[in-house]
Write a structure and sequence with these properties.
By secondary structure, this protein is α/β, with parallel strands linked by helices. It is globular and about 65 Å long. The protein starts with a strand and ends with a strand. The longest helix has 13 residues. The chain contains twelve helices and 18 strands.
Length: 351
């Protein structure tokens, strides 16, 4: 039995760098990637912190890229030696939702590294990973263009998640407000700038995050230093934002989004909600005619658009990387990420 090294979640707050069996293909649509880069995502913190209960000894990680080393007999788009990035979500491609062009609502959706409840796929914080339904789930990494490997790494999740949150409700010239300047929020702000927003406002309480938002062309608003609603209304002749992105996934962020949106505007939610219910000012939302959209991102629908924008230099999510570490340092990396000591950590499975 061949073995490999991987990041294993033993229990909440306990991640180990350990030796496990190297994965094997089980379906003709599978490929095996030799992972070259992988990252820690905010969603990984849900099982790490115990907010999602998953079984012990799960291989974590759903942001990764690498080189194809094995190809199933039914795979038509990839051959051994191709370099590729995988969507964090694997869809079936055949159900009602997939056929309707809405794969995020696929009844068979699976997410890497989040346990049996979300499909039982081993994650990509490892030396090797199996990618099912590879022709749908993966994209080749372009060999020319402005995008680096670090940029393309994030097309499988945070960059495309932030992009879709804006794109699905966007009209050129809109004012876009983003609540939360974490990686997804900053990717949403970057996307709004690239798509042609008239102005982009980012609300947060962390000065370093707001400085990064301003560096990508947004207006930073510190919620500890003033009322974000006043700031947004001052910029929009007291109408409010056309689109508000809740990139946090917390009731307080959504309440803020409700205050920032104009009558007839949109609230788009890429933030992850685990609560069964929260309090909302539903009467106000109804009177203002605000639409709310959210859910798991349609990654495969937008990866090609995002890759194209990365490749011409319009999107450069690699600027969000704060730390590069070896996979062998994964225990420390998770502690840093949990303690908000890092914006984005990229791990090298070879180290």
């Amino acid at each position: 039995m061949e073995l490999m090294k991987a990041a294993i979640l033993r229990s909440p707050h306990v991640v180990e760098y350990a030796e496990v069996p190297r994965p094997q293909m089980t379906d003709p649509g599978d490929v095996i990637l030799k992972v070259e880069k992988t990252a820690i995502c905010g969603t990984d913190l849900h099982p790490y912190e115990g907010r999602i209960e998953i079984e012990d000894d799960v291989i974590l990680g759903h942001e990764f890229l690498g080189t194809v080393v094995e190809v199933g007999s039914a795979v038509g788009q990839f051959t051994v030696g191709d370099r590729a990035v995988a969507s964090c979500v694997v869809n079936c491609g055949h159900c009602f939702s997939c056929r309707k062009g809405d794969p995020a609502r696929c009844i068979g959706s699976r997410i890497f590294g989040l346990g049996i409840a979300l499909g039982g796929l081993d994650g990509g914080q490892a030396e090797y990973v199996v990618v099912p339904n590879a022709d749908l789930s993966m994209r080749k990494i372009p060999t020319i263009g402005a995008g680096t490997d670090d940029d393309h790494l994030f097309t499988g999740d945070i960059m495309t998640t932030g992009y879709e949150a804006v794109r699905r409700v966007f009209t050129p010239g809109d004012t876009v407000a983003v609540v939360g300047a974490g990686p997804v929020g900053l990717c949403a702000a970057m996307s709004a700038v690239a798509l042609g927003a008239a102005q982009v406002v980012v609300v947060d309480k962390v000065a370093a995050r707001l400085k990064e938002a301003e560096a990508i062309g947004a207006i930073g608003v510190n919620a500890d230093e003033g009322d974000p609603q006043d700031a947004v209304y001052d910029l929009t002749d007291w109408r409010g934002a056309d689109i508000v992105i809740d990139a946090v996934g917390h009731e307080s962020a959504l309440l803020s989004a409700c205050r920032l949106a104009r009558a007839g505007g949109h609230i788009s939610i890429p933030g992850v909600y685990l609560e069964e219910s929260i309090n909302l000012p539903f009467g106000e939302l109804w009177l203002k005619g605000i639409s709310i959209t959210g859910g798991v991102a349609n990654i495969v629908n937008y990866m090609d658009e995002v890759t194209a924008l990365v490749n011409v230099g319009k999107l450069n999510p690699s600027r969000l990387i704060s730390h590069r570490m070896g996979l062998s340092e994964v225990t420390q990396a998770y502690k840093m990420f949990h303690n908000h000591e890092a914006t984005k950590i990229v791990l090298d499975p070879g180290k």
